TrEMBL record:
It comes from the Bacteria. Gene3D superfamilies: MFS general substrate transporter like domains, Multidrug resistance protein D. It is a multi-pass membrane protein. The keyword Lipid metabolism does not apply. It comes from Streptococcus panodentis. This is MFS transporter. It is found in: Cell membrane. Coiled coil: none annotated. The lineage of its organism: Bacteria, Bacillati, Bacillota, Bacilli, Lactobacillales. Keywords: Membrane, Transmembrane, Transmembrane helix, Transport.
Amino acid sequence: MKQVQKVERADLLAILATALVAFAGILSETSMNVTFPHLSKVFGLSLGVLQWITTGYLLAVAITITLGATLAHNWTERRILFTALSIFTLGNGVAMLAPDFSFLMLGRILQGAATGVAIPLMFNLIVERVPRQKIGLYMGLSGLVVSLAPAIGPTYGGYMIGAFDWHMIYSFIMPVPLLSFAIAFFNLKNSSGKSKRPFDILSFLFLSAALVFSILAISSLEEGAGLNWLYVAVFLLTFACFIWRSLTVEHPFLDIRILKQPTILFGILPFLIYQFTNLSSNFLIPNFLVLSKGVSTAQAGFSLLPGTMIGAFMAPLLGKIYDLKGPKLSLLGGNSLVFMVMAVYSFFTSWLNLPIILGFYVLFTLGRNMAFNNTMALSSSQVSREKTADVTALFQLAQTFAGALGTAIAAVLVNQAPDTAAGAHHVFSLLLILVTGNFLFYAFLFRAIQKKQAEKTGPKQ
């Protein structure tokens, strides 16, 4: 019998330390969303301006996530995490003491930058230090820690803004990075044998500009102002320059050439669709219940909580299923659940009510959690250790971009529809089409893996 390798306790705690940074960052993001009406009165600013508290944070995350591959090659794990913790703690302190909006924005951008550095490190530690037989379980455990943040964020933010001054949101978050530092200081070990990679600053600037203008274009859609074609043009130009530079330079800043491998391309596409579907649904469902079904705001907010909490606590078990039964059950089974939910939401939109949406959303989160991180785990296992950091960075970049795009597209479809119910039907129909496409992507993915394994073993004698 093949002996299953054990995960060292120090590595488990190191993964937890990095997950705590991601938890703190996501908690600060989701808890602030419910404070905008209050902050509008405090600062005398419109909701459109205050939206940059979230948009600026997401931009910072997206830009620094792209550094994951370069940092993984050139910095030790301790240096990466302690740098991220220092920046996050500084940003949290600035936001905690912020006298005005500009200082709050500075704190949010620093928090976002630190979170973007920490998230790729967390997944790199899992892929590189956890045995293949247990990778699903540890993806699930990290998913549990990170998924709790958006689950409790709105409730936490709402309670804090009602009971205390808004600054206290950050005061109560401060112990989290300090706890992460203590755990990592005693448990995080550096890897040996890293190959250095030159930092191509021109590629980084091109990609950063492309991300900034893509988010600006998406935000213009979200605000209902129509697509800003200047932003789109600058995005396309800078993104094209980034691709050209990455394909021609000897040592690319982020090796997008690995997307030529079907085992990566057909993994990242469903991964992107899951995040697009998740954020679209999270935006749409509460608004649909309030505006179309006459549900109270408090009840509408609760509609997502049971599914999110159950999905978070079930994540380790769902990861264990991946380890024991292989990827096909997790990926195809998870996508089947998501497909079923979107089919119900799409075909029976007018019949939906709070109990139906709540119940099916539980199934949605279970299906998504079965397939989401396990898709990245499967694709990451198909490349050499030297390329895992690039794969992780690309997947996390896709996740950030898909989340912003999903919310914007859902908002546009609802705003342009005759009423909220019709808009919800359009969004759910789009999501159903995208999730159906995942079956095709997974078929290509499994075929590519099978072909790769056949080439590795060679013809039978």
